[in-house]
Amino acid sequence: MSDRVRILSRAGSTTVEPALLPAASGDVIRVGGGSRLAGTVPVEGAKNSALKLMAAALLAPGRTVIGNVPRITDIAIMADVLRGLGCEVTMSESEPLPVAGSPRADTVIIDVPPAPSCQPDVDLVRRLRASICVLGPLLARCGRVSVAQPGGDAIGSRGLDMHVAGLARMGAEISAADGLVVASAARGLHGATIWLDFPSVGATENLVMAAVLADGTTEIDNAAREPEIVDICAMLTEMGAQIDGAGTATLRIEGVPELRPVRHSTIGDRIVAGTWAFAAAMTRGDVTVRGVDPSFLAVALDKVAASGATVDTTGDGFRVRMERRPRAVDVVTLPFPGFATDLLPMAIGLASVSEGASLVTENIFDGRFQFVDELLRLGADIRTDGHHAVVRGRERLVGGRVRATDIRAGAGLVIAGLCAEGVTEIADVHHIDRGYPNYVADLCSLGVQVQRLSGAPAG
Ligand code: EPU
User: β-strand 88-93 against 105-112: which pairing, if any?
Assistant: First the structure.
């Protein structure tokens, strides 16, 4: 992954849906330690799928309807990105509800104009990593695009070189400099053979979305195989695209002249589901998760089982029961179907309270261990060296004041707080709002003492 384009991570002003505005960044989640999670929790659509499905809507003029979209701030920002491009975007409660008892999924209706703008709002794009996924569709639709380098979590350098190189192979003139990616394809994009240095999720998505309207056949080798890639390929196929190999390392796309808008429902969120699986194991709880295909997180569930939990899977979810102190397990993050990097904070959290020492290796993001300093404040025994962490489990952590450094770290710290003696306060919880709809309410419904305090001073 040479010549990485560094990403600027800067917040800007926006006009996101009032209902979805992040609460003040001074909000704190207060967790009472020593609690056990028990009950059933529904999981909504996957953030990292829904955001890309919304970008894919740009490929067809007319009304696209996407169901099972989670109510989180990242979705609201993406809606505003699309509005800025001339789309009308409205949201309403998903019907029928994808998961019984879940009021939190939306149906997003996107009316795409015949000629969308090709210049997404710079400030909005910088708030959201997934906004880079408008690059491929806009280039395919408009023949030119100028998009800011996106923001997102502080989990390490997040290159764009594979997006840029792939589109260049398809005939785009493209440059990424001074915080802006500028691309044009005056004579349209053409099919190409593209070998990705690494199975990048975002690059695969952008290149597929560009290739579906390109002239001729595109082959993407070493493509990402995440369930979210399969979901976007399914929606594109429903729209009239010709794609073979979704879910494998080789995607073959035959370009078509145009696509039509469709209705599509988002797959369940495997990372939110995985968070509950680890939370059940860490708190010696009993949690049933519904609304996700358990094969999406087979390796994660296998690790939870290896730590001593009983894991039963069903057609649309799983149950995790833990009756003992967890045993240490080693974890290595890898592209799908490997262990998801987004569950690394949960794996380190589990290791922190397990019997024995665990070796946790991160292979995707170079800054993912940033949150470890916060876990140390709760008394965890963790030593990091490069992309490895050695975690020696403690019977109990100690309550304290910590800060969410990104979405997943934030969610993981809340769970760690449940395993601590005394009270833990997690600040900067707006990060959690970006990816977990109703996190505090879900925790309360699982029987633990958790409160969100507005505007409380950060630790
Ligand atoms: N990379 C490059 N050059 C590129 C593209 C990627 O060097 O052109 C590098 C990145 O810097 C990173 C690695 O490749 O080190 C993997 O990046 P990838 O492109 O696969 O990740 P992404 O598309 O930026 C998505 C999710 C992440 C998730 C990763 C890996 C979205 C919006 N984000 O990011 O989710 O961790 O895939 O599965 O889909 C989250 O939801 O909290 C989150 C961070």
Answer: antiparallel
Q: What is the CATH number of the domain that holds 275?
A: 3.65.10.10
Q: Which two tokens stand for residue 311?
A: 């894991």
pLDDT in tens, 136-158: 999 999 999 999 987 656 666 67
Range of the domain at 333: 18-43+269-453
Kindly name the residue from 27, 74, 80, 153 that is annotated as catalytic: 153
Q: How far is the CA of 201 from the centre of ligand 1 (A)?
A: 6
* Number of independent structural domains in the chain: 2
- At 16, is the secondary structure helix, strand, or coil? coil
Collapsing DSSP to helix, strand or coil, 383 comes out as strand
Q: Give Cα separations from 141 to 79, 106, 148, 426 (angstroms).
A: 19, 27, 18, 44
> In this predicted model, what pLDDT tens digit does every residue of 6-20 receive, in sequence order?
222 222 222 333 333
| Binding site membership of 161 for ligand 1 (Cβ less than 6 Å) | yes
For atom 32 of ligand 1, the residue with the nearest CA is: 130
Under DSSP, the state recorded for 113 is -
Burial of 398 (0-12, 13-18, 19+ CB in 10 A): middle
CB 280 within 8 A of CB 37: yes
Phi-psi region of 325 (alpha: psi -120 to 50; beta: other; left: phi over 0): beta
Mark whether 286 is an active-site residue: no
Partners of 392 in beta bridges? 357, 381
Q: How far apart are CA 308 and CA 445, in angstroms?
A: 25
> Is 311 in the same domain as 436?
yes
Looking at 211, 237, 265, the residue that finishes a domain is 265
Q: What is the pTM of this model?
A: 0.93
Whether residues 58 and 37 share a domain: the answer is: no
Given a cut of 60, whether residue 363 has pLDDT beyond it is yes
C-alpha span between 350 and 166 (Å, rounded) = 39
User: pLDDT tens digits for 252-270?
Assistant: 999 999 999 999 999 999 9
Residue 129: per-residue pLDDT: 80
CA distances in angstroms from 118 to 111, 206, 333, 356, listed in the order given: 16, 15, 36, 54
Which band of pLDDT confidence, cut at 50, 70 and 90, is reported for residue 370? very high
In angstroms, the CA 221 to CA 166 distance is 11
Pocket lining: 435 vs ligand 1, CB cutoff 6 Å: yes
Is pLDDT at 225 greater than 60 in this prediction? Answer: yes
Six-digit token pair at 225?
A: 């195989």
Q: Please give the pLDDT value at position 1.
A: 38
